[in-house]
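User: what does the whole thing look like in 3D?
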Amino acid sequence: AQKVTQAQTEISVVEKEDVTLDCVYETRDTTYYLFWYKQPPSGELVFLIRRNSFDEQNEISGRYSWNFQKSTSSFNFTITASQVVDSAVYFCALPAGPNAGGTSYGKLTFGQGTILTVHP
Amino acid sequence: EPEVTQTPSHQVTQMGQEVILRCVPISNHLYFYWYRQILGQKVEFLVSFYNNEISEKSEIFDDQFSVERPDGSNFTLKIRSTKLEDSAMYFCASIRERGNQPQHFGDGTRLSIL
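Assistant: Here's the predicted 3D structure for the full assembly of 234 residues, as structure tokens:
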């Protein structure tokens, strides 16, 4: 069975601090994808990034960067110079791969989420 | 960019009443999902739907729940006799191909059972 763990329930930082959100996953798939979603106070789920297990190169997009390490089954997300607008719940998610069984393929397993609060 | 749309955004219903949550997935998508998020908790899978039938359902998706795609565009989730514990945010999602594509989520319907 797939599992995603986000051990940090809540993080509070002051604006301009860097913050890293942790995600650890379990899967039996040999190739897989991982996603991060943002849920702002308005409640919708906003897709942020997709990474595949073939590519462990870190990715940077503006103030966001992701560190994917297959050896430790971690997919961490860093926000540099945080801003108040970054305040949200962040979810790491793992889609079931083809080895999960045909009907489960594609189903997302979410972590518990990390509540990030950025204070001015 | 095409979006998944959900209506209503907020539904308030008396316990025991039937409720239908509506979703319009992205038009060329083939796989459809409902997820539920109880306030303050994680997003949980409810059901997946493909080729006009349920592909998989979770333990949460009991006999009180049903889904259908009545007209090729709408995708509905029906709860026959609502309970207090059905109060949650319900998200619809769709995808064209499984596995490597992120699911596109609607903005959710907040269901409040009184």
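In plain terms: Chain A has a mean pLDDT of 90. The first strand of chain A starts at residue 3 and ends at 5.
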